[in-house]
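Project standup — Tuesday

K.O.: blocked on the structure for the chain from last sprint. Re-posting the sequence here as requested.
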Amino acid sequence: MIARHDLPVRVIARSELSPTCFRLELVTGEPVSAAPGQFGMLTCGDGLDPLLRRAFSLAGVRPHENGAIVEMLIKEVGRGTGLLHHLPLGAALRLLAPLGNGFTLADGSGDRLALVAGGIGLPPVLFAAEQLAARNVAFDLYLGAASSAELLEVGRCRSAVEVVGGELVLATDDGSRGEAGFVTAAVERRLAAGRRYLRALACGPTPMLAALARLGATRGLEVELSLEEPMACGVGVCLGCVVELEDGRFVPTCKEGPVFAASRLAARWRA
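H.V.: unblocked you, prediction finished:
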């Protein structure tokens, strides 16, 4: 576990990614070390309204002077994310990070990984892709969304995949770009055609993750899922994000996850 810190941060960049999503870049005054799949709890302004911080997966962390730049990809869904969307550059916030456990990236076997992202589930997958590219670990990246307008960071995904000679597969529910249908169906077609992966790393809506868990169980593929459970505290105190495990225990996603091996989760995930 990488030690977490409650960091003062400033907004240094913001850009639009889609009609509903935007990129936020935050600068810290001290170094930050994080793994793909970990997340942070971010305040939405300088006051106490809204009171609770919002949980966001980290899309990237890179050194900057004496600190770091932390990148988040955010979908505006309510008041908190709306406030973040319209903060002025230079706005002061606080970030509790890094939190939780990340994906399993270490691999010396040379076997290919499958990275699967659905919609705003891209941030931890993009973070993993760019780290794997830097390490020259082979992977394919499957990027899905409801429509072409909601496919995020396609250029960055393609650049990371090209470094390792992998395949970037785009899929949209409405068929407006890439393969028509769910992104998990694109994965299944390639597995059925004989493609093999060491493991799959995924983040996205719960139905997508459950479909991938079932596919992994059927095909004998190890799958790691970054769950998108609602989080209020981020440190396992409030128990608002519990998930059931295969052994019947309920554990907080923020502390035990958010990344879980699909085989650890309750059987209903694979039913």
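K.O.: great, moving the ticket to review. The chain is about 20% helix and 35% strand. Residues 113-270 form a domain with the Rossmann fold fold (CATH 3.40.50.80).
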